[in-house]
Amino acid sequence: MSPQSVRLGDLCAVTASPSSDLFTELALDAEGTPVVTPADITDAQRIDPEALRQVPDTVTGLARFRLHPGDLVMVRLGGVGKVALVDEGADGWVYHSSCIRIRPDAERVDPVYLAAYLAHPPVVAELLSHVQVVTVPVLTTQALEGLPVLLPDVGRQRIMAGALREVGLQMDLQRRILTRLSAVRQGLFTQMLGDELPGVTVSRATGAMPERRMPRTRRTNRMS
Length: 224
What we know:
Strand order of the largest sheet: 2-8-5-6
Shape: globular
Structural class: alpha+beta
Distance between the termini: 111 Å
Largest sheet: 4 strands, antiparallel
Order of helices and strands: EHEEEEEEEHHEEHEH
C-alpha cells in the first residue's frame, strides 16, 4: 500500500512559540524550569542537556508551552528545520520563543518516524521554500501545518522507526568514539612536543637556573 500524503496540521497539534518576554531572566544559574533553545537541538534529533538554561519558577504563563514525551520541538527562527524528539528526561520543560512545538497524534503517526521525516533534507528544503525572510528566515505555524507528510500505515512506520532508532544509536556511539579519539590525538601532541608547543609555558622551581656550559675551545696539537 502506497504512503498517503497528509497535511502535518491534520496529524499533529502545532503550538506557536511563546513570547520572548517570558525569557528575559533566562540564565544558566537560574533555579527553575529548563528551556530548550535552538542551540540545544542536535543533528541527531535530540536535546542536549549539557548547557540548558533555566527560567525562574516565578515567571508565569509557561504552562501552555510545557513539553511531554513524544512531542517534537522545531526551530522556527534562523536555523529553520532543526528538530528534536522529546524524551522522558525532558518532561515538563518548556521551549524557547525561537521554536515551535509539534504534538503528534500517536495513533496516526509515530513520533520517531515523524522526527526523522521532518529532518530529511528534501523535506527541510520544502520547509525552507515557505519561510518568510526578513533579516533571518522565519517559519510560521501556518506553513508548518500545511507541510505534506508521506504517511505509511502505522505498522510500517513503527518498523521504520525501530530501524531509524538503531541507526541513531550507532551514530551516537560513533560520535562518542570520535570525541575520545580527538582528545587522545591532542594529548599525544602535548605529550610528544611538551613545552615546544606555541603558547605553552613551563614553570621552573624558584631559584633554579638553567645549566650553562663553558664554550668549547679549539684543541691544537703541541710539538714536544
